[in-house]
Amino acid sequence: MDAERMAELLDRHEFKQLKEELESMHPVDIVDAFEELDKKQRTLVFRLLAKEEAAEVFTDMNSDMREDLINALTDSELEEVMDEMYVDDTVDVLEEMPANVVDRLLMATDEDTRQKINALLQYPEDSAGSIMNIEYISLRKEMTVADAILKIRQVGINKETIYTCYVTEKKKLIGMVDVKDLLTAGESRKIEEIMDENVLYARTLDDQEHVANMINKYGLVAIPIIDHEDCLVGIVTVDDAMLVLQDETTEDMSMMAGVSPDDDSYFESSVFQQAKNRTPWLMIMMLSSTVSGEILGYYENAMAVMPVLITFIPMLMGTGGNCGSQISTLMIRGLAVGEIEFKDIFRVIFKEIRVALIVGTLLAIVNGIRICLMYDWNIMLALALGITMIAVVIMAKCIGCVLPLAAKKIGLDPAIMAAPLITTILDTCTILVYFNIVTVFFGL
Q1: Model-level pTM?
Q2: Are the C-beta atoms of residues 180 and 301 closer than 8 Å to each other?
Q3: Are 131 and 248 in contact (CB under 8 A)?
Q4: Under a CB-based contact definition with an 8 Å cutoff, are residues 60 and 85 in contact?
Q5: What does the pLDDT look like over 241-296, one tens digit per residue?
Q6: For residue 223, what are the β-bridge partners?
Q7: Which sign does the torsion angle of CA 322, 328, 334, 340 carry?
Q8: Is the dihedral of CA 209, 210, 212, 216 positive or negative?
Q9: What CA–CA distance (Å, rounded) separates 137 from 155?
Q10: Are 375 and 308 contacting, i.e. CB atoms less than 8 angstroms apart?
Q11: Average pLDDT, whole number, for the chain?
């Protein structure tokens, strides 16, 4: 069912039919349809949803849609929604809302939930603690399998995941056991007999991207989070990890394009916000380009003697920039997924020099043939441009791989050293290499 169908049923006051059709829709699809409805229609449809489905739809909405809905719902309706939401989802919602809306949402939660929310809000932004869920199933090692299954039946409905249960002793994590192992083991067996003591875990202050990559690397449904005292305090589930990786990828893509990251989507952010995000990088790159202009001015006499030299500058700068962008993109991706680390820097440089020699030689040969055909077989010019091309490609590959690795090493986001910045650096270096080579060849 799409937004048009929803609006049609609302106009005809066929609420029973609309409610039946909503039951077969996925919450994400409902949110997509909501984007095409007005505030009044959205509220009417939301009130027809079952409590659990309403909570999921509310979680998947964007911040503007949530705020409109909060203002339209009564306190009792809002309380029902909040009761059905998991604590980590509630925290995500609160972090995006204005202070007056946050106050109303907190009023709609019970005292125990408010304490859990406040505990999560105290962790640093982008840490594992800030995205973890404190609703997990904890077992004791002396419990029997039958006792464990009974506990899952009693409390599992309120937990975000029951597929993996964690074994604790005095709140310290000592093992884990999958539901599959519980269902296939004898009911009288002890948990300590079937639990896995080799547990992968993360700490509350670990970076959320690191935790998400661990879940992705090891194919986990969830990963336990422990505090500085080695006590189990929560879990990060795979759905939260996917959101983290999505956000980090969006941030990296923005920075690679020379745009400051923004939490809002393209259409949600204002024209002035978009201008603010883009201007600083453009300003930096524009001012840094003045260095290239000064270098060109220094070689003004050489260009006056051989004006043809000017015509090759855009080609060389473009080739260098493209080569740098290629390898920097591969480096940023490799660093993001853990394929490449700073300790691999010399292996990477050695490999890229070999790649650059092959690529540069092929480009130099093709360009040399073009110069011979267009400039009366001027072999010296073709040779000078060929050597310059190889040198520029090697330089671009080395700079393009070293800068992201160096940024990661000193704690900066490798995406900062992406296409725009590397291209600007390479433009200056290319001009220096080019004119030094042609000066030697032609004695200018």
Answers
A1: 0.54
A2: no
A3: no
A4: no
A5: 888 877 777 666 665 555 555 555 556 667 777 677 667 767 776 776 777 777 77
A6: 236
A7: positive
A8: positive
A9: 8
A10: yes
A11: 81
